[in-house]
Design brief:
By secondary structure, the chain is mainly α. The chain has one domain. Helices cover about 70% and strands about 5% of the residues. It contains five helices and three strands. The protein is globular, with a radius of gyration of 20 Å.
């Protein structure tokens, strides 16, 4: 009986260790500002959106699943907007280039989402949810989150570009 529990325990521990290692490196990278390219800001949202549309077109959702997709889109959009607002956007005084720096709040949102995803994948049947619906719902959620985050950052960056650049002397 104890052997049946061990594999289930490992299925939680191994992803947790991997997530922790990735987040340590991610947090270190988040400590510095990186250039913000307004053209490339749309690549990830477009890829996730196209993948979500393709997946739903190949396997159209049952009518009962449409509510889950709409809910995932709405929640993903709200979290994405918040996640986008947590990114600090500045304009370099010397070059006038846009710079962005992610906040720890964005990392916490990602950690929570990864934990929720793992929980949904492993415990969906215990709650009477069809686990085969999870990929579509999570993909729609991610597409909405990345899209709304990009829109929020784009709006703030464009607004910053209309202002005169800051003086390099302070």
């Amino acid at each position: 009986m104890q052997n049946a529990i061990a594999p289930n325990y490992i299925s939680y521990v191994v992803p947790a260790i991997i997530i922790a290692m990735v987040m340590v490196f991610r947090m270190r990278r988040m400590a510095r500002s990186v250039p913000l390219n307004l053209t490339w800001i749309w690549v990830i949202p477009v890829l996730y959106g196209a993948l979500a549309v393709l997946l739903i077109a190949v396997k159209p959702p049952a009518p009962a699943m449409i509510g889950w997709l709409v809910g995932a889109f709405a929640i993903g959009g709200v979290l994405g907007w918040y996640r986008g607002k947590t990114v600090r956007i500045t304009r370099d005084g010397g070059s006038g280039k846009l710079m962005q720096q992610a906040s720890p709040a964005a990392a916490v949102i990602l950690i929570v989402l990864i934990v929720i995803r793992q929980g949904v994948r492993s415990e969906a049947s215990a709650f009477g949810v069809d686990a085969s619906l999870a990929p579509e719902v999570l993909l729609v959620f991610a597409a909405a989150m990345f899209t709304m985050g990009a829109i929020e950052r784009y709006i703030r960056a464009r607004r910053l570009l209309t202002q005169p650049p800051p003086s390099p002397l302070g």
